UniProtKB/TrEMBL annotation:
PROSITE patterns: ABC_TRANSPORTER_1, ABC_TRANSPORTER_2. This is Oligopeptide transport system ATP-binding protein. The keyword Cytoplasm does not apply. Pfam families: ABC_tran (PF00005), oligo_HPY (PF08352). The lineage of its organism: Bacteria, Pseudomonadati, Pseudomonadota, Alphaproteobacteria, Rhodobacterales.
Length: 335
């Protein structure tokens, strides 16, 4: 089991300018020291409330931004500091499926032209070869080839997302970031698109980072799940463990708000309502990012940031309650 994508200490900060001279007076730490691997062939769910930095994280990994710091390795190549021109050669390996298929498809291009565009940009295929490939891709995502000359507005939301997926597949990628790919779709269509993504994963050996605000949704598709809060990953665990035995207080609160299908687990779960609002990522609290809202907060939490660490094999948590190293030193004088 090898990692296809390796992210270490990823930082994506956006400068804040203010005053007459537009001096930089601070930074929004949208993604702050995030580390994880995405294993070959898996679906890693990246979950959190809106504004937690999960979409920015997905885009930063694909280098749609120049990142502030850290390391991003995809398929053995460190692309973290690569120039945009060098990145061109890596683009085919990594693609994105966007949340809003309406906004991500050019309304003036036919379906055929939309799916062909990456082939035009990155390959030297002949016109006939491209046409054949577009046809294959339409078949693969369940779009009737007869619709090739139609424009996006003629399609339903679910069909438009299929067009977006076909375009993402055009260059035979290995890694796809799916940014809330079903959030904008009717509930009746959501399962179809999830099933399609799963079928395609199996057929083409794809690896997904699946971004969602909905823990009951990623439960169906993710192998492992990372929970993000205020720019940081607070917990990462295999799916079954995360749902049956969440460790981080924030994960517990999030899970307590979603319906639990397993009655044995449901019985043990009480509703946790968090107080207060998420602090601004421009001005996060000292110590633990979650300390202003955490039901289990201790004095140490307001001073010292917990270390994100593997607490049992395969389970990562950033919380003083679970620290396995350095706890004695850190809590000296507090507990
Ligand atoms: Fe809560 Fe403290 Fe753990 Fe942060 S470190 S989640 S404030 S208990
Ligand atoms: Mg988003």
């Amino acid at each position: 089991n090898t990692a296809l994508v390796r992210v270490r200490d990823l930082q994506m900060h956006f400068p804040i300018y203010s005053g007459l001279l537009r001096r930089q007076t601070g930074a929004v730490k949208a993604v702050d020291s995030v580390s994880f691997d995405v294993m070959q062939g898996e679906t890693l769910g990246l979950v959190g409330e809106s504004g937690c930095g999960k979409s920015t994280c997905g885009r930063a990994i694909l280098r749609l931004y120049d990142i502030t710091g850290g390391e991003v390795t995809i398929d053995g190549t460190d692309i973290g500091q690569m120039s945009q021109s060098d990145l061109r050669t890596k683009r085919p390996t990594m693609q994105m499926v966007f949340q809003d298929p309406q906004a991500s498809l050019n309304p003036r291009m036919t379906v055929e032209a939309i799916i062909r565009e990456p082939l035009d940009e990155h390959t030297k295929l002949s016109a006939a070869e491209k046409e054949a490939k577009v046809g294959e891709l339409m078949d693969a995502v369940g779009l009737n080839r007869r619709f090739a000359k139609r424009y996006p507005h003629a399609f339903s939301g679910g069909q438009r997302q299929r067009i977006g997926i076909a375009r993402a597949l055009a260059l035979n990628p290995k890694f796809i970031v799916c940014d809330e790919p079903i959030a904008a779709l009717d509930v009746s269509i959501q399962a179809q698109v999830v099933n399609l993504l799963e079928d395609l994963q199996e057929k083409y050996g794809l690896t997904y980072l699946f971004i969602s605000h909905d823990l009951s949704m990623v439960r169906h598709i993710a192998t492992r799940i990372a929970v993000m809060y205020l720019g940081k990953i607070v917990e990462l665990a295999p799916r079954a463990e995360l749902y049956s035995d969440p460790l981080h207080p924030y994960t517990k609160a999030l899970l307590s708000a979603v319906p639990e299908p397993d009655p044995a687990i449901a019985q043990t779960r009480e509703r946790i309502v968090l107080q207060g609002d998420v602090p601004s990522p421009a001005n996060p609290p000292k110590g633990c990012n979650f300390c202003t809202r955490c039901p289990a907060v201790m004095p140490v939490c307001k001073d010292i940031e917990p270390t994100y660490q593997e607490v049992t094999p395969g389970r990562f948590v950033a919380c003083h309650l679970f620290e396995t190293t350095g706890t004695a030193e850190k809590t000296a004088g507090y507990i």
